[in-house]
Amino acid sequence: MTEPSILFLRACLALLAMPIYLLSFLGIWEPFCKKIFFPFFLEKLSAVHESKVKKQKQELFHNLPNFKSPSGELKLLEIGTGCGPNFQFYPPGCRVTCTDINPNFQQGLSRSMNKNQHVQYERFLVAAGEDLHQVPSGSVDAVVCTLVLCSVQDVNGTLREVLRVLRPGGVFYFLEHVAADRSSWRYFWQQVCYPTWKLVFAGCCLTREIWKNLEQANFSELSLRHTSVALPWTPIKPHIIGYAVK
């Protein structure tokens, strides 16, 4: 399909979403999305997403205890904690610092913390992935980032911050939805949905090839595989999952 086809279908989708575009123009949508819609939507999506990826996450995080510091502690920083769907996979006694650019996830986050009291919660920081200046360099054993790199302003900047806060030998775990194969129909529809999806879902970008950023970052070891997560009627089926060692 050609670029005119993409532009035409984008215009059709924008017409369907015209009320949201109008609210955005008036400056109403962004605060409403940040405070009410996105926290509500993300908690619901997380429940569906977790049911699809639970086994993959269990496999992903199974070696987390291997990255304890010499003192025996495991200090973990989670970027974009949201409602805390990853807490259940962390080992007992793990000391977690939560960060998110959006401070409006308190209700869902509190529910998740109450369900997962085997974890020690250190603090919650309102911070973007690209700017973790409140976290000292080399101070954590592990960093976790799931379904976040799609919406950060600067993927490479976020990965630089990950490397900075990790101690030597520390580990970065990731699970992210990514662009489909460029020759596929799925990629075509990702391009069609891109502007409206980004507006509605708080800056989420559908066509990022995040595996390339990870491959170009200065990790000493990278274990990455492409996978699919069946989420009907969404353009975010292609994912990458894995970990990287500083």
UniProtKB/TrEMBL annotation:
Keyword ATP-binding part of the UniProt annotation: no
Coiled coil regions, renumbered to chain: none
InterPro entries per the UniProt record, alphabetical: Methyltransf_11 (IPR013216), SAM-dependent_MTases_sf (IPR029063), Thiol_S-MT (IPR052356)
Top-level taxon of the source organism: Eukaryota
A GO MF term: S-adenosylmethionine-dependent methyltransferase activity
Residues of the signal peptide: none
Pfam families, sorted: Methyltransf_11
PANTHER family: METHYLTRANSFERASE LIKE 7A, METHYLTRANSFERASE LIKE 7B
Protein name (record): MET7A protein
Organism: Chroicocephalus maculipennis
